[in-house]
Design brief:
Helicase, Ruva Protein, domain 3; 14 strands; six-stranded parallel β-sheet; alpha/beta; 480 residues; Rossmann fold; 15 helices
Length: 480
């Protein structure tokens, strides 16, 4: 057996060097390798060992997941290759100089093991193990492993030692782990809404609650428009999924809703997300970090990969797509590859990406002008007719609505957007209260409509206003 002093780099025998150098990783690996080899010998595990370094999805080393794999194995009547019988955490070998001495978890995870817990989660658990010494026992053989939390790595590095010739069995064990993880994710994500990158003025909890309480009763848009957008959900039908598979293309549909702010795009998307979730689907809402398109794109990529792991019909909602794929992004190729299908994660149950944009002109033209990168763009515009305007009045005036009193103003509201209608009704109610009346009149609505139009015009004209020049007499008090 090799002596540890023969393995360590010169000048680093007394201990572990600082974490600031590349030599730290090499020295720690050398120490751990020497210790695990000695541990193998002490345990009398026999056969000639194979020692290798590995980097694997850290979620696979969650204690609850390992226990689940053992539980599944105990229920089988016939053993499989790589079937785990039991696992254990080992005390750190003396030769390891306390490297990996403590079973260190990577953060706190939510109870579903989906990812890092937020301050709104309850029943949280420790995350995956990224530090510690372990033994994995299989039918007729065992493996040893150590996982080490690297100072500048997002995932732990590890060393695995197993009998030579058991490599395929070890890979089969990793497949078991991954299948168990996907099983957990599938059950926990059913009917779940996940929010990635909540905007600064919101949080995951309030956004999720707002989505869940939205219904199609809140959507005031032409029926044919609603039908065209909701019709994109056919991606989840078995015959459509089979057609995608036959064509050997990822089962992913990409839809972009465009139009000015306030037209109802977000309300329509929230209603679709709420209904999809109620039916047991998985929904991921993705928000961008303003000015950080590259980082935001990684967040969207994570959502697409999460859809695959869930194995469920998935709706990925992307608010303000222009903040993810603007021409100012330096490296667009990874994004284009995903949209083209070259590097697209394929979800067998189907994924629908439903994106919105108030400024489609800010989206890179290689996306909007190339067929297939966005499958369909649907415009959600302003109020088209009196009937739609009346629906808005009825919705926002609620119990104060009087068709004989209020419908005559509907014609004047054609061409406005839904958010304008909401503010008209609110301002009209305030005007009535200020006038000490308990009912809203047509004149209140007219006043509110004209006041809002005048305010927008004044705001638009602000860029033509110049401040008065300062005279010699100060700022006004001393001037005659």
């Amino acid at each position: 057996m090799l002596d540890m002093l023969d393995i360590l780099p010169e000048g680093e025998i007394q201990g572990v060097p600082t974490h600031k150098t590349r030599n730290w990783e090499m020295s720690v690996l050398h120490i751990a390798a020497a210790a695990i080899m000695r541990l193998w010998e002490e345990k009398g595990l026999g056969a000639e060992p194979l020692l290798f370094r590995t980097k694997t999805d850290e979620k696979l080393y969650h204690p609850a997941l390992l226990d689940k794999v053992v539980e599944r194995a105990q229920k089988r009547k016939r053993a499989r290759s790589g079937q785990l019988s039991r696992w254990e955490r080992l005390p750190v070998p003396p030769e390891a100089h306390e490297i990996g001495a403590f079973p260190l978890h990577n953060d706190l995870y939510d109870s579903s093991l989906l990812g890092e817990a937020s301050i709104y989660d309850r029943n949280t658990v420790g995350g995956p193990l990224i530090d510690g010494w372990f033994a994995y026992h299989f039918e007729g053989w065992s493996a040893l492993a150590v996982r080490l939390a690297a100072p500048e790595e997002n995932e732990a590095i590890g060393i695995v030692m197993l009998p030579l010739g058991r490599q395929d069995d070890w890979l089969a064990f990793l497949v078991e782990l991954r299948q168990a993880l996907h099983g957990v994710l599938r059950r926990k994500r059913k009917g779940r809404i996940e929010v990635l990158g909540a905007p600064e003025d919101g949080n995951r909890f309030t956004i999720e609650q707002e989505i869940r309480k939205t219904t199609f009763d809140h959507v005031i848009l032409p029926d044919e428009l609603i039908a065209r957008v909701t019709g994109q959900c056919t991606i989840w039908q078995p015959e459509i999924l089979a057609r995608y598979e036959a064509l050997r293309v990822p089962r992913l549909r990409k839809v972009l809703l465009i139009g000015p702010p306030g037209t109802g795009k977000t309300t329509l998307v929230k209603a679709m997300a709420a209904e999809h979730t109620r039916k047991g689907g998985y929904t991921v809402y993705v928000f961008a970090d303003e000015g950080h398109g590259g980082h935001s794109w990684l967040r969207l990529r994570r959502a697409l990969e999460s859809a695959v792991a869930s194995g469920l019909p998935t709706l990925v909602v992307v608010e303000d797509l222009e903040n993810f794929v603007s021409p100012r992004d330096e490296n667009m190729q990874p994004i284009l590859n995903v949209l083209d299908g070259v590097a697209t994660p394929d979800n067998p149950a189907g994924t629908l990406v439903l994106a919105t944009s108030n400024a489609p002109e800010r989206i890179d033209k290689r996306i909007t002008q190339r067929p297939g990168r966005i499958d369909v763009m649907i415009e959600v515009g302003a109020i088209q007719d009196e009937a739609q305007a009346i629906r808005f009045l009825k919705r926002f005036l609620d119990s104060a609505y009087n068709p004989q009193e209020h419908n005559p103003i509907a014609r004047r509201l054609i061409g406005q957007v839904g958010s304008h209608m909401r503010e008209v009704c609110i301002l009209a109610a305030i005007h009535a209260i200020e006038d000490r009346r308990d009912h809203v009149t047509r004149q209140d609505l007219t006043f509110a409509h004209e006041a809002l139009l005048a305010g927008r015009k004044a705001a638009a004209d602000l860029d033509t206003c110049e401040p008065p020049r300062a005279g010699n007499g100060g700022i006004g008090f001393a001037r005659k």
